[in-house]
């Protein structure tokens, strides 16, 4: 995908070094040691989640990322149950906002 200064392919060790440097630049210091964006592939998951949360239909998200709707749905299956648990925990703590 990216070329080096000699026109060849960027080596994986170079790619990872630059990725780590970019994380240090982009993330606040207290988050650098977390797995957040630990690998470039994580950006794909973040994009899929963002599109789904924005209201795009699963079929459109699947088409754009090259998966079947079943694969995308399998990734979010249970989200409603998780949201219900979060809501319940907040209500038990008196936080209804």
Write up this protein.
It is a single chain. It is built from five helices and no strands. The chain has 97 residues and is mainly α. The protein folds into two domains: 1-36, no CATH class; 41-97, no CATH class. The protein is flat and about 60 Å long. It starts with 11 loop residues before the first helix and ends in a 5-residue tail after the last helix. 3% of the residues are buried. The mean pLDDT is 82.
Per-chain topology:
Layout: H1 12-26, H2 42-53, H3 58-65, H4 69-76, H5 79-92
Largest sheet: none
Mean pLDDT: 82
Q: Helicity range of the residues?
A: 55-70%
Uncertain spans: none
Order of helices and strands: HHHHH
- How much of the sequence is in beta strands? under 5%
Number of helices, counting only DSSP H or I runs of 4 residues or more: 5
How many domain regions?
A: 2
Overview features:
97 residues, mainly alpha, 2 domains
Task: Briefly say what this structure is.
Helix 3 (58-65) packs across helix 4.
């Amino acid at each position: 995908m990216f070329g080096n200064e000699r026109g060849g392919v960027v080596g994986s060790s170079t790619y990872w070094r630059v990725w780590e440097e970019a994380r240090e630049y982009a993330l606040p210091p207290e988050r650098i040691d977390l797995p957040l964006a630990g690998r470039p592939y994580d950006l794909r998951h973040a994009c899929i989640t963002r599109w789904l949360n924005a209201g795009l239909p699963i079929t459109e998200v699947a088409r754009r990322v090259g998966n079947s709707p079943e694969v995308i749905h399998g990734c979010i299956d249970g989200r409603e149950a998780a949201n219900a648990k979060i809501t319940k925990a907040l209500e038990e703590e008196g936080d209804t906002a």
